[in-house]
Amino acid sequence: MTKGRAVRWRRLSSPSTIYKGVRVSEDGDVSCEAATVYRPAYLKVPGADVDPGNLLQLAAHALRQSVEARRRIAEKAAVTRKRRRELKISSTAEAIRVGKVLGPRTNCVICGRGLADQHSIDRGIGSECWEGVLQRIEDLRASKLQEAA
Ligand SMILES: [Zn+2]
Prior knowledge:
With 149 residues, this protein is α+β, with helices and mostly antiparallel strands. The chain has helices spanning 52-97, 118-123, 127-148; strands at 7-13, 17-24, 30-31, 34-37.
C-alpha cells in the first residue's frame, strides 16, 4: 500500500461477511462503515465469533468438512457400485449355468462398457467381468457339489 493515499471500496465480500464502506487510511489503518455477517449452515463452528481474523479459520474448517463429506460420499458410492456389480455377476453366472446365451452384444451385460474383441462380443461379457463370472460359476458348482454330497 502506497503511503499517503487513502483507498476506499464501497463493498468487499468474503464467503461469510460483506463489508461496506471499507477504507484504508493514508496511515494504513483499515476501517469499515458496516459489516454484515452471514453464517450459512455449512460454516458451523461451535462458539466461534465471526470476525475478519476468524474468517480464514472458518473457511478452512468449512473446506475440510466439505472435503470429508465428499470423501464419505465417494466411499459410499464405491461400496454401492461394488455391491451392484457382485449382484450382476451372480445373476449372470446363474443365467449362464442354466444355459442362457447372452451374446453377441456390443456392450458388456455386467458393466455396460463397449466390447472390442470377438470373444467378448460373442459371449456378451468383457474379459474383466468374465473373470468374475467364471469365479462365480466355480463357486456355484462347488456349493452344488457340497449340497449333493
Ligand atoms: Zn464388463
